[in-house]
Amino acid sequence: GPDFGYVLKEPLSEATASLDSFGNVEVSPPVSVAGKEYPLGRILIGSSFPTSAGRRLSGPVRDFLFSQRVQAPVELYSDWLALGNVNEFVTFVPTSDKKRFRMLLASPAACYRLFREKQKEGQGEATMFKGKDTGYSGTDTKRVTINKVLANDVLAQQNHYAQRCIDWNRDILKKELGLLEEDIIDLPALFKLDKQGKAVPYFPNTVTMTVLAKDLGIPKPFGPVAGGECCLERRIRSLLEPLGLRCRFLEDVASYHGSLGEVRCGTGVQRRPFAFQWWHFAP
């Protein structure tokens, strides 16, 4: 049609990897950084950074994105994940306050804090994965309790590593997007390492939500049920609903999560375009 176009970038001599997926090409909301305005936000891409070896976006795609100076890309470290996509640990939600948005980060540390809090309240035997007979990536879902998770030293070490990777990205995002700690919300998450030493979600990863204005389509985490309610859902609601957001938890274990995906992998959102002609904007 007259208002539609596309660009095709393909590698000629290298194989594509999962980092070439569009879950690994995100964009921030509009930001102001050190006096410089980015009215269309900044592109976020995942890489093997800070190491020289590992998976990266294919050359032609990476070169094309870095030529987009209006949305000058921020390179993050995502190769620690099995799929290696940035949307597995960061997303953004709109707010009606002065900041206009919050950045959400997956946080194993927040999950461990929540589980320890519930354990101290005498809810250590609260069970995860209720109603799910099969595990994910080898996870035994039979009688997985808060106590068992907290007693699993290997899982704790793996999540300490995952948290360090996320914290590395947190520092980069704060600097490159001009964010303060108050602009960031940590959502409880757990990971486990596969045979290649790459991280996969231990339970459905709530950060990989679909954002529809103030309605959030969030993967249902199937966390420990205490007091008749999933404590992960309760904590996420308490973090996001005060911002005027509506949390809708969607079951995606059979459809996406079991194949290393979540709700976002099978949904698309048609966005309303900007009123102004963005291609006339000079960086």
Automatic annotation (TrEMBL):
**Organism of provenance:** Ptilonorhynchus violaceus (Satin bowerbird)
For this protein, the record's PANTHER family field holds: PEPTIDYLARGININE DEIMINASE (PTHR10837), PROTEIN-ARGININE DEIMINASE TYPE-2 (PTHR10837:SF12)
Q: Enumerate the GO terms in the molecular function aspect.
A: calcium ion binding; histone arginine deiminase activity
Q: What is this protein called?
A: PADI2 deiminase
Record-level GO cellular component terms? cytoplasm; nucleus
Domain called Protein-arginine deiminase C-terminal: residue spans: 1-280
Alphabetized InterPro entries for the sequence: PAD, PAD_C
Task: Report the Gene3D superfamilies cross-referenced here.
Answer: L-arginine/glycine Amidinotransferase, Chain A (3.75.10.10)
